[in-house]
Amino acid sequence: MDATKTPAAERAYAHVKRAVLDREYEGGALLTEGEVAEAVGVSRTPVREALLRLQAEGLLRLYPKRGALVLPVSAQELDDVLEARALIESFTARKAFAHRAALVEVLASLLDEMRQQRDAGDYRALLETDRAFHAAVVAAAGNAVLTRTYESLRDRQVCAGLATMRRTPAWMDEVVAAHAAILEALGDADEARFLSLVSDHVDGVTARLRGAR
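Below the sequence we write its predicted structure tokens.
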């Protein structure tokens, strides 16, 4: 979509969310409506709408007449997010396997994107496509409540994931290899291996993120 045709509130929302997840706005930073409005080139009214939306997602906390505080990801919150993610993915992977024919095509396309992003050294794009890969598996299970819950968890994990991947670029290769193996098992209709690989991958990400803080 042409950026000039994107609603102002949506542009402000996308700008702030990207900056928070990329840690351009670090946890503890206080943002003002005027600062964001100037950066995006919009008025303060759509910025206020965007900040309210990000507060509802748990990324900011608004303080009247002062601004919006970027909420840092605490060690306990990260543990909670990772634990919830593991539970959701292990449950939905079993149900998603029954829809593997359609799922394989979607995941294969995403894996191609991940390889291109790995080769380009684009950490953020790779993590976003990683997110889409896992979200596709969760969505294939057909439980709308779990799908929405899973989406709400991933933003907080991306904050930690970007910082970790920048420190250890070789992790990009590991992520791509893990997803390739998951897709191969799904394509081979090997349910036991598919479920095992999903579990191992999530456990590996959990261990890496916990060890990096």
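The chain is about 75% helix and 5% strand.
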